[in-house]
Design a protein that fits this description.
380 residues, alpha+beta, D-Amino Acid Oxidase, Chain A, domain 2, 2 domains, eight-stranded mixed β-sheet, 8 helices, 28% helix, globular, binds glycine, thiamine biosynthesis, FAD/NAD-bd_sf, glycine oxidase activity
């Protein structure tokens, strides 16, 4: 059986796996990254919001701290990535406007703003008129808003291009093959076996396997990652010159109880997302999903009718039972998890890479990562 050796082997070349491999290589380790189709799955479907404040959920305090660290880490991460590659990292610092359509939507938005304030987050409650001052093409029916200056976005496709270049220039060995299983010796992971039978031996294995984490072979049953796929459909539209910019900021909206978000890109693209369905590994784009996204987007931004529909695509969010990621030691020596990022994969890319690299180098999970160990779920 042919063999390779490395200090670290990373399984999965989505944003998390690419950034982790790059960070480890930048920190002086020899890294192998395995994926049959790098940068093609959930990471390319995502809208790329950096939304720790506007996506905060009641009672998720540890996750909020990690998500805030995530948004704070992006500017330096993007600068380093651009320095290393000469490729734009796609960070777009615009702030986010949350808007409400009817009276019930507005009441829910105000309640959330009160909660955000109790957490010390920066939010400013606006009237409908004030919201339209920030975004003149919003519908007259928009009844109120909340301005969140610290939530931004990243063009995830640009970030993927930059990261693919970064792993190449930093000497990461990228193997375009599926990992058949994690190899173990007793209770220690010692590498991975690829589909063609090749063994890649490594002192540490990092599983950045996203929605496929629960199926990773070679992981003892009681240590499997409780990660399930949650489908999201996303649309990409092109704004004609005459209507640019259709939006200046990311806009999140609740329209008659339905949530939708609209993320503008500097080049005239508008990303509209996302549905949320538990349908296993089904990534078909359904008419009902496209209809719902367009209906809700159009309710708050009528000019949607004039945009060109360029793409409708579906991806699988890697969800865990508590919506937070699984980071660090797995319970199997030599195997670390970097998975389960659910709705926050783009946001948590830099901070996950930093946490995993620090864990490999020091043997200790940094404090920020400690609430996110696999062991919090017990035997699943
Ligand atoms: N964070 C956006 C989504 O998961 O749809």
């Amino acid at each position: 059986m042919p063999e390779h050796t490395s200090d670290v082997v990373v399984i999965g070349a989505g944003l998390i796996g690419l950034a982790t491999a790059w960070q480890l290589a930048a920190d002086g380790l020899q890294v192998t990254l395995c994926d049959p189709a790098p940068a093609t799955q959930t990471s390319t479907v995502a809208a790329g919001m950096l939304a720790p404040v506007t996506e905060v959920e009641y009672g998720e305090d540890d996750l909020l701290a990690l998500n805030l660290a995530g948004v704070n880490a992006w500017p330096d991460f993007a600068a380093r990535l651009e320095d290393a590659t000469g490729v734009p990292a796609g960070l777009h610092r615009t702030g986010t406007l949350s808007v409400a359509y009817d009276v019930d939507d507005a009441a829910a938005l105000r309640r959330l703003a009160e909660y955000q304030r109790t957490l010390g987050l920066e939010v400013e409650v606006l009237t409908g008129r004030e919201s339209r001052k920030r975004e003149p093409l919003l519908a007259n029916g928009v009844s109120g808003g909340v301005w969140v200056p610290g939530d931004h976005s990243v063009d995830n496709r640009q970030a993927l291009t930059a990261l693919l270049r970064a792993v190449e220039v930093s000497g990461v060995s990228l193997i375009r093959q599926r990992v058949a299983q994690v190899l173990t010796a007793g209770t220690t992971a010692i590498g991975v076996q690829l589909d063609d039978g090749t063994a890649v031996h490594a002192g540490q294995v990092i599983a950045a396997t996203g929605p496929w984490s629960a199926q990773l072979k070679g992981v003892p049953d009681e240590l499997r990652a409780p990660v399930r796929p949650v489908k999201g459909e996303v649309l990409r539209l092109r704004v004609p010159e005459a209507y640019r910019p259709a939006l200046n900021h990311t806009v999140r909206a609740t329209a008659r109880g339905f949530a939708v978000y609209l993320v503008p890109r500097p080049g005239g693209e508008l990303v509209v997302g996302a549905t949320s369905n538990e349908l296993g590994y089904d990534t078909r784009v359904l008419a009902g999903g496209v209809f719902a996204l367009l209906r809700d987007a159009r309710t708050v931004l009528p000019v949607i009718d004039e945009l060109e529909l360029m793409e409708a695509i579906a991806g699988l969010r890697p969800a865990t039972p508590d919506n937070a990621p699984i980071l660090g030691p797995s319970g199997l020596d030599g195997l670390l998890w970097a998975t389960g990022h659910y709705r926050n994969g783009v946001l948590l890319t830099p901070v996950t890479a930093a946490i995993l690299s620090a864990t490999v180098r020091s043997g200790t999970l940094p404090d920020l990562g400690k609430p996110f160990l696999r062991s919090r779920f017990g035997h699943f």
